[in-house]
Amino acid sequence: QVQLVESGGGVVQPGGSLRLSCTAFGFTFSDYGMYWVRQAPGQGLEWVAFTRFDGNNNFYANSVKGRFTTSRDNSRNTLYLQMNNVRLEDAAVYHCAKGSPGQLSAFDIWGQGTWVIVSS
Amino acid sequence: DIQLTQSPSSLSASVGDRVTITCRASQTISNYLNWYQHKPGKAPKLLIYAASSLQSGVPSRFSGGGSGTDFTLTIANLQPDDFATYYCQQTYRAPLVTFGGGTKVEIK
């Protein structure tokens, strides 16, 4: 079954670190660029980060640049988001999503998300 | 950055109604506009890509239109399963994508 499953969410203190994972099933993970998208409580969807199919050329939203790092291990079909110097405003559900080049880069597969709670 | 403005931000409708949501881009994006349905606790679902192409498996009561800066999502014959929040997304500047603010469709 084609799906993405996120893990690694939890409670983190302001200034702390957390690493999220996203494991892919049912498609050739190494062929596709992958995205992180978050939704803070009561807010809409916000793009966070992108990694190219080969793990090179990563891009970040201004709100997380310099603090978050995305990477991937194609041998493990897994995408990562390393979150450092976490802020209160980073609290959200974090989704990973697959880009679809044949559909003008629309996100055709999404995970259900993992919660990040920021609290001292 | 390309901004997307959705309207309305919320609406109330009845089963069987026809509903239209609009999305306006701050600059021309050709047809690089997608629509998603999102329910609480679930993965967002791609409905429409490239402004008007129906994603595989999505009911035909969903349709999209527009190009350039103005786009629409129409749901004909609204069904109970359609009550959700809908987002537009531009991928003209992919991977630097942006989403609209969302439209919550509620039961009247």
Q: Which SSEs are present, and which pair or pack?
A:
The complex is a heterodimer of chains A (120) and B (108).
Chain A: E1 3-7, E2 10-12, E3 18-25, E4 34-39, E5 45-51, E6 59-60, E7 68-73, E8 78-83, E9 92-100, E10 106-110, E11 114-118
Parallel strand pairs in A: 2-11
Antiparallel strand pairs in A: 1-3, 3-8, 4-5, 4-9, 5-6, 7-8, 9-10, 9-11
Chain B: E1 4-7, E2 10-13, E3 19-25, E4 33-38, E5 45-49, E6 53-54, E7 62-67, E8 70-75, E9 85-90, E10 98-99, E11 103-107
Parallel strand pairs in B: 2-11
Antiparallel strand pairs in B: 1-3, 3-8, 4-5, 4-9, 5-6, 7-8, 9-10, 9-11
Description:
The complex is a heterodimer of chains A (120) and B (108). Helix content of chain A is 0%, strand content 52%. Chain A has 120 residues and is mainly beta. In chain A, a hairpin with a 4-residue loop joins strand 7 and strand 8 (78-83). The N and C termini of chain A lie far apart (39 Å). Chain B has strands at residues 4-7, 10-13, 19-25, 33-38, 45-49, 53-54, 62-67, 70-75, 85-90, 98-99, 103-107.
Distance between the termini of chain A: 39 Å
Q: What is the count of DSSP helices of chain A, taking H or I runs of 4+ residues? A: 0
- Quaternary organisation: heterodimer
Biggest contact: A-B, 24 and 27 residues
Q: How many separate helices of chain B? A: 0
Give the key terms.
heterodimer, A: 120 residues, seven-stranded mixed beta sheet, four-stranded antiparallel beta sheet, globular, B: 108 residues, 11 strands, 49% strand
Give a quick precis of the structure:
The complex is a heterodimer of chains A (120) and B (108). By secondary structure, chain A is mainly beta.
